[in-house]
Amino acid sequence: MAGNDHPTVGLDETVHQRHRLGILTITSRASQADFGYLRETLGLTPGNLSTHLTVLEEAGLVQVQKGYEGRRPRTWVSITRQGRAALAAEMAALAKLASQLNGDHGSADDGET
To answer: Which of 15, 59, 77, 108: disulfide with 90, CB 3.0–4.6 Å?
Structure first.
């Protein structure tokens, strides 16, 4: 099997990191997610979550909106169209990899370990 045909080639380092993947999957299921909800659900510190959100926002995968709910400052995160496409591509690559691991080996069995 050629090296560039392996399913891991399709994994995106920006998306694949577990917390960023979590942010994208959560925001893909809702119109927007509250910063506090993401922080608690993913078990992150505010600083760590902010760092991951900056990476995703700079890549165009999420949009971060700051505002107020009453007098309380709030931050909401929503996935972009580009983010949905990147998440779909990541899930397809993972599905292909899982398929190979579950017995659909194709021509990957070259005798190496």
So the answer is: 15
